[in-house]
Design brief:
By secondary structure, the chain is mainly beta. The protein has one domain. The chain has 1 helix and 7 strands, in the order βββββββα. The strands form 3 sheets. Strands 3-6-7 form a 3-stranded antiparallel beta sheet, with no helix packed on it. The two termini are 29 Å apart.
């Protein structure tokens, strides 16, 4: 979501979705939930760019969806390890399976 902020009043005159948002705040069940943006989706860390000549704002975003599945039994804590509590499966219909995984294997365990 792009939030436009008035510099002087700090009001938000409008907001504009720049990527698909589906089940963003849904509970993650063991059976899985399909959601956008996925683990590598959304705006990420790239900021927007403004072009004064055309009065245009450009926002780079990634519109990849995934299915999040919660582990039935939580894993043990391991120092210095990433823990997401389950698995993700990239399942964008717009990308080939190789591209949609973005270097991650399907059903990779992020525990």
């Amino acid at each position: 979501m792009l939030h436009v902020l008035d510099r002087e009043t700090h009001d938000v005159p409008y907001e504009l979705p720049v990527t698909t948002s589906e089940n963003t705040y849904a509970e993650m069940p063991v059976s899985g939930v399909h959601a956008w943006p996925g683990l590598l989706g959304g705006i990420e860390w790239n900021g927007p760019a403004y072009k004064p000549k055309s009065n245009s704002l450009f926002v780079s975003s990634v519109d990849w969806c995934v299915t999040f599945k919660k582990f039935a039994t939580p894993l043990q804590y391991a120092p210095d390890a990433h823990y997401y509590g389950g698995t993700t499966t990239a399942d964008s219909k717009d990308l080939t399976p190789e591209a949609s995984c973005s270097g991650f294997s399907e059903n990779e365990n992020y525990g």
